[in-house]
Amino acid sequence: MSSKRSTLTRSLALLTALVALAACSRAGGDAGDQPARDKGPAAEVRLGYFPNVTHATALVGVDKGLYAKELGGTKLTTQTFNAGPEAVNALLGESLDVTFIGSGPAINAYAKSKGQAVRLVAGATSGGAQLVVKPEIGSPADLKGKVVTTPQLGNTQDVALKKWLSDQQLAIGAAPDQVNVTNTENAQSLDLFRRGDVQGAWAPEPWSSRLVLDAGAKVLLDEESLWEGGRFPTTVLLVRTQFLREHPQTVEALLRGHLAATDFAVGDKAEAKRIVNGALKALTGKALGDQVLDRAFDNIELTLDPQAGAFPRLAQDAVAAGVVKEAADVTGIADFTLLNKVLSAAGKQPVDTAGLDKK
């Protein structure tokens, strides 16, 4: 009997040690370093995007069924947003799995979740953002006492505007010698500009083109002039880390659809414009004029390269803009494993992570 008790005691001790070890592992481990738990294709993938020309790939891919085709038995559910912070809330709240989004909110989502909740898996659009103003505004100094709007507080254009104003040594505020920066939905900013309630907007396409061609604005600054080679990541593809780990096959399928949509839009620009305009009419209630559509498409580049090398600068820009107090550490944000697998299979060049795939 004593021998049985001794054996039982040793077994209990071993079990206790194993439980303690597991608890320590959970308490001290970093969720971002845990191995993937592949559950196979997802039953559903929830995809977000915006009714903007800078999200043309999403609009084309959804309309042409290119994502659905690659996803096979996985149901595709879509949701649209006005700007990045809304999409970030949906991602972090786990009501969204993947989204097309601006680079600024992508960084913010990564930082807010301490590098855990999201991963950058592809690019979508480069360029396509301008500071447009009333014709009488001829220089940065003329913005003093004026109202300039961006789509949403902390979104990509909001950060870009505030960083640029800082570089111009222009203070933000409501005083006569300051620039009054407000945040307004794109469609509303057009009406406000027409009424004279705002005198400028840092806007993505097609809204910058609409302000110029439909409301008489002029371009004071094209954001491409601030970047070497004129290329900067306007729209990227962001995925929830948990979804990426649990359903890599689904993310890979989505990326194949993304490549197909990009190739289609680049190869048949006229048809891509028609599709995008139809989608914008369905989503916003109004189609774009031909001149607006042509100008907007001329100002963007559709690309799967998210230009990862720009992300450290973008993180620092948010500090200069006064949006955050400390620059986000973006190391680890990029996971281009599946993207480069898809590109390689299509005979295309891989995308550089610029070292942001390592922590």
Short description:
The chain has about 350 residues and is of the alpha/beta class. Helix content is about 45%, strand content about 15%. The protein has helices at about 1-30, 55-65, 65-70, 85-90, 105-110, 155-165, 185-195, 205-215, 240-245, 250-265, 270-285, 290-300, 310-320, 335-345, and strands at about 45-50, 75-80, 100, 120-125, 130-135, 145-150, 180-185, 200-205, 220, 235-240, 300.
What does this structure look like?
- By secondary structure, the protein is an alpha/beta fold.
- Helix content is about 45%, strand content about 15%.
- It is built from 14 helices and 11 strands.
- It has helices spanning about 1-30, 55-65, 65-70, 85-90, 105-110, 155-165, 185-195, 205-215, 240-245, 250-265, 270-285, 290-300, 310-320, 335-345; strands at about 45-50, 75-80, 100, 120-125, 130-135, 145-150, 180-185, 200-205, 220, 235-240, 300.
- It has a 6-stranded mixed sheet with strand order 2-1-3-10-4-11, with helices on both faces. Strands 7-6-8-5-9 form a 5-stranded mixed sheet, with helices on both faces.
- Helix 6 (about 155-165) links the parallel strand 6 (about 145-150) and strand 7 (about 180-185).
- Helix 2 (about 55-65) crosses helix 11 (about 270-285), helix 8 crosses helix 12 (about 290-300) and helix 10 packs across helix 11.
- The longest helix has 27 residues, at about 1-30.
- It is globular.
- The N and C termini lie far apart (about 55 Å).
- Mean pLDDT is about 90; it is low at about 1-35.
